[in-house]
Each structure stands twice: as C-alpha cells, then as structure tokens.
Amino acid sequence: MGLVLKSVPEEALDDEVEAMANRLTSVPKNQLAMQKMVINQAVEATGLSGTQQLATLLDGISRHTPEGHNFKKRVEEQGWKQAVQERDKGTFDWSKNKPIQE
Questions:
Q1: Which H/E stretch holds residue 92?
Q2: Is 99 within 8 Å of 83 (Cβ atoms)?
Q3: Best label site of 10, 32, 56, 83, fewest CB within 10 Å?
Q4: Alpha helices (H) in the chain, listed in sequence order
Q5: pLDDT digits over 47-101, tens only?
Q6: pTM of this prediction?
Q7: What is the CA radius of gyration of the chain?
Q8: Sign (positive or negative) of CA dihedral 70, 53, 46, 2
Q9: Between vectors from CA 91 to CA 87 and to CA 97, what angle results, nearest 5°?
C-alpha cells in the first residue's frame, strides 16, 4: 500500500527520523505548500471532507439515543473493553440494555 517507507531497528529509529526531518527541511517551502495543495485537492475530490462531517454529525446523534446512553452506562459499569467486545460480538442488546441470552 505504500504506507511504510522504511523499517529500521529500534536503536536506529531516532537517527533515521532526524535524517528524514533534515531531508524534508531541505525542500523549498513554496514547493511544500504546492504539494500540500495538490494533496488537499485530491482528498477534497474524493468527498472525504463531506464524509467526515457526516460521520461527526451521526456520531453526535447516536450518542444521544437510548442505545448510546446504554452503551455509555455499560462502559462505566463493566469497562470499555467489555462493552466493545459485547458490541462487536453482538452479545448485548443495547435497546433493552441487557445481554442477549443464547
């Protein structure tokens, strides 16, 4: 996917990060600004900004539903990991606020 440029041993990581940072500082600022504009334009063309805004809106709405309140209560009572595990496995009925009996 091209997300990893290089892998280095832990003891060499700081030096490698410094070398990359020094290399980046050698690029003229106007070229960095233009590259950033191109990348931002590509992101905007995909509709990502609108999707992010919609996700934020829907997240805010879902937190204020009975199910959202029940999830928050379950986190407070049982802990985050337990509540997420129940959510992901489908073993808890958030509408009725109780475990699903098998």
A1: strand 92-93
A2: no
A3: 10
A4: 10-25, 29-45, 48-62, 66-78, 80-89
A5: 888 888 999 999 999 999 999 999 999 999 999 999 999 999 999 999 999 999 8
A6: 0.54
A7: 23
A8: negative
A9: 80
